[in-house]
Amino acid sequence: MNNNWCVIMAGGIGSRFWPYSRNSCPKQFLDFFGTGRSLLQMTIDRILPLVPMEHILIATNASYRSLIREQLPEISDSQILCEPVRRNTAPCIAYAVAHIRALTDDANILVASSDALILDVEEFRSMIGRGLLFVEKNDALLTIGMRPTRPETGYGYIQFEKGEDSLRKVKTFTEKPNRELAEVFMQSGEFLWNAGIFLWNMQSIWRCFEKYLPDVLMPFVKIRKDLGTPEEQRAVDRIFPTLPSISIDYGIMEKADNVYVLAADFGWSDLGTWGALHGLSERDENNNATLHCNADYYDAHGNIVALESGKLAVVQGIDDCIIAESDGVLLVCRKQDEQEIRHFVDDAEEKYNGKYN
Amino acid sequence: MNNNWCVIMAGGIGSRFWPYSRNSCPKQFLDFFGTGRSLLQMTIDRILPLVPMEHILIATNASYRSLIREQLPEISDSQILCEPVRRNTAPCIAYAVAHIRALTDDANILVASSDALILDVEEFRSMIGRGLLFVEKNDALLTIGMRPTRPETGYGYIQFEKGEDSLRKVKTFTEKPNRELAEVFMQSGEFLWNAGIFLWNMQSIWRCFEKYLPDVLMPFVKIRKDLGTPEEQRAVDRIFPTLPSISIDYGIMEKADNVYVLAADFGWSDLGTWGALHGLSERDENNNATLHCNADYYDAHGNIVALESGKLAVVQGIDDCIIAESDGVLLVCRKQDEQEIRHFVDDAEEKYNGKYN
User: Exposed, middle or buried, A156 (CB in 10 Å: 0-12/13-18/19+)?
Assistant: First the structure.
């Protein structure tokens, strides 16, 4: 067995995909494309040749433990790391790293989200394999950067230093740019999309947590004797609510000086929005995408329609809308306003006491 | 027991209300307003003080017999007149009249549809009571005309002769007018909406069938010995497909010279379209009407939303649309194009082998 480990972050609630993604079953647990495998299951399938099953950890919210047991029966209970409350990515990763350290000092760790879409799995494996070899031999924090195919304003960007190799030092991380800036980024050839995939060895990430986020790491050091024992959950439940909510990007990646990026091209999408899903789905000649259901369109263009399997949608005279129904909730919303969906969810939660969340 | 009879026409398929109204359960069988009573049941409730239960006949399509038994357990099987095929209103009424004549020569007959909405039930009963008295004493075909409240282009109009009384002779029947003409009709004060409610005595209507529609009446005369016996259905099934498809308006009312109209004002709607239903429903400050379900609107105006009870619709950025879902079919359609719904139903029937009809 090799010393590669993988941490899959699977605690998100995916509210931007409401009502399809729900509190009770967020998008990572859904079979988005009707392939028979959920996004989480596809994520595991992708990394299995690189990382032994026993070295895969699923970091999630406590409420999703049973869903994960159901979808991943081959994963043992101790491989599911449950956060009692949501605290963004840095505390999540600190917990996973501390958990691994309680088992071994020698680990190359891949961190990835559970809800991304990756089209070219062979290329993904080849790139991750190269990355794991690199971090095994180097004191480096490695990210995967996707060569941009469009001036996307929904992603963060990574600027890398000039050079020939596809693996180079990172110059800057950039937040989601406006359209104009995104065009400049894309034309410059110096920017990559930040895919939120990280690789590092135990020593490198541990030192960075000690240096940049001691408040996040130290509570785990203090409960070290409980990690890997039946006491782990109780100890984590105690310290986790006290941790600051902070992202790994902001807390470490943007501050460390040994950050590298591997430019890749494996057809990645964070599947963050209905609009992104529309762009990735098969569409008819009028640019309508239909997921799961039957749909007939009349004088309708640029819509994405997702009803439950077996249902029929008839859509007439409507352009550029999201029409999504799941489990008693129907959303009809302009694609351009999909950032509002979060507010609809909040409003509905308050108005109907969480009945539709 | 009085000699008033009532024929309720309940054979329509209501395809303009698809997907809410379906082949398997057309609109007359639906509880449109969530009151606990279907339109058919409300129709019976309305006429019961005027007509004995035993004198009520339901004329329908053979496929709805069991639905009617279910909704009207107080009606005996022999009161359900089943047409094996659809042939418009004249053959339907000829059948009912012949059926009654086999039981009695002395009858005042009210003919009404099963799927209209009537808001002022007391006024309805008062008017129908007056009408029944009138046709008992006069050789007249009496219709009920509604005083128009708007220049509706979806209804036929009745022009009546000048006079003081609200019961007058009819001058002309007019098909659905265009907008301009409808405005003129309304302003003239001489036109009423044709509500498709008829009253006559047995002798009057029989003579008219003999004179204007002998092709429709004679086959029933020939099977007279079977009517009111266990052989009735078999005999009707044999002759019905041979009858011409023709409306009572075109076949008799527009031709006879003893046609009268009683002008009434009891809040009638034929509930023919989603648009009409929108106009009759309670609406929020943005003119959105919600039926059965919960609905939240954001920057949305003039919509009618009808999902199954208990569901939630969130509608954003959409104006003047029909959003209706029932039993696995969702329709999103501009209100102004609702006459297209028939075509959607036809297309879906062909494409999905009737699965969604």
Answer: middle
**Stretch among A244-253, B8-17, B102-111, B129-138 having the lowest mean pLDDT:** B8-17
**Residue A302 to residue A305: CA distance in whole angstroms:** 10
Average pLDDT score over residue span B307-315 = 93
Tell me which H or E stretch contains A157.
Answer: strand A157-160
Residue from A311, A17, A186 nearest B307 by CA: A311
Q: Which residue of A has its CA nearest to B19?
A: A314
ipTM of the complex: 0.79
Q: Which segments of B147-234 are extended strands (E)?
A: 157-160, 167-174, 191-201
Query: Are A352 and B310 an interchain contact pair (Cβ–Cβ within 8 Å)?
Result: no
Q: Give the length of chain B.
A: 357
Amino acid in the structure at residue A40? L
Contact B332 A332 (CB under 8 A): yes
pLDDT digits (tens, 9 = 90+) for A147-195: 998 888 888 999 999 888 899 999 999 988 999 999 999 999 999 999 9
CA atoms of A348 and A341, how far apart (whole Å): 10
Round to whole Å and give the CA distance between B146 and B192: 5
What is the Cα A6 distance to its own chain's centre? 13
Among B293, B296, B314, B355, which would you mutate to test the A interface (most chain A Cβ atoms within 10 Å of its Cβ)? B314
Residue B351, C-beta contacts closer than 8 angstroms, at least 6 positions apart: A296
